[in-house]
Amino acid sequence: MFVAEDHGLADGSAPTLTEKTTRAEAQQRVALFLERCGVAEARRDAQALLLAALGITPADLLLAPDAAIEASVRRLLHYAERRGAREPVSRILGRRGFWTLELAVAPEAFDPRPETETLVEAALSGLHQRRGESLAILDLGTGSGAIVCALLAEFEKARALAVDVSAAACAAAAANFARCGLADRAATLRGCWADAVDGVFDLVVSNPPYIRSWEIKSLAPEVALHDPMLALDGGADGLNCYRYICGDLPRLLSPRGLALLEIGAGQARDVCALLTAKGLEIAEIRCDIAGHERVVAARRPRPCSRDKSATLAI
Known about the structure:
Elements lengths: L22 H14 L5 H13 L3 H6 L9 H12 L4 H5 L1 E4 L2 E4 L12 H10 L9 E5 L5 H9 L4 E6 L2 H13 L6 E5 L10 E6 L14 H4 L15 H13 E10 L5 H10 L3 E7 L5 E7 L8 H6 L1
Parallel strand pairs: 3-4, 3-6, 4-5, 6-7
Antiparallel strand pairs: 1-2, 7-9, 8-9
């Protein structure tokens, strides 16, 4: 048993939990501990860790808050200590909900964030008339494969190629494709952006590294200490990867193709300039749920239709 009179909170040590501690008490003590450690969503995270450690559902907790945590005490304490050290819940539990799916989170791959779901929304909006077609999708810098999984779940006849320079990320993506039952429609390719990619695609997506190099050390510990540096560093101005990607888009996009790029704060204008410099037109700048510009959509310029009256006058 783990015993301390002050519940382990006064000096910042881990919360005191025993086999007789109730579920409600354990959740409260873990939440208080996480608050002291600077965790922003301490109560939400405490509940997530409690449910996972005990192997119960939110309904179980609601119906029996006074049940003892019993043999789960060590597991819950271990989870709490890791979260107190600012390791994200998703990495502690090894899974993350994204779109309508539950994906595995691998140590070597970027942990997908809810904001990236904005890119999936943009794809559904931009290609809504082509949902039933056998679309070809390309994901550059796929990481965990989250975007591909979400897109293939929505575009049921589509196929996707997921590219990443990291062998570990490619393995993580392939594992998620299998986990979601999509392995027959998705393939991974290790390479630097589109250097090794041939052919044209109906949809090209990317959530590239876009943090300015000098800003990385100021990021929250959950990001700076746990996401791969390769997935964060966008160079001095945060735009290095966009320069590579935009340079290849003219040869990658089919005539009716759509490109969707996730962007960081204040980058919309610069990314739009890179796209238009390559002859593409901006179709949309989409904001995320918090109101921040999150995704730039671009496509090939559409041919100008002839003015019939002008034709008749000639």
